[in-house]
Predict the 3D structure of the following.
Amino acid sequence: MSARPTDDLYVRYMDAFKTSSEHIAACPACQADQPCTAGRPIHERFHRLQDAYNNRQKQQR
């Protein structure tokens, strides 16, 4: 039996989630829902990938 192919979008989405979560844990500004200069692109990337993944999931139903 062969291994399941890697879902690149899911991997990138989970990586972005991890990066965003780690940044929030260490950044008081981002914890207060006021993203810092460094955090803004990190969180935007996570949200873009989350939207793309969720949209793809909806299309597959």
Q: What stands out?
A: DSSP finds three helices and no strands in the chain.
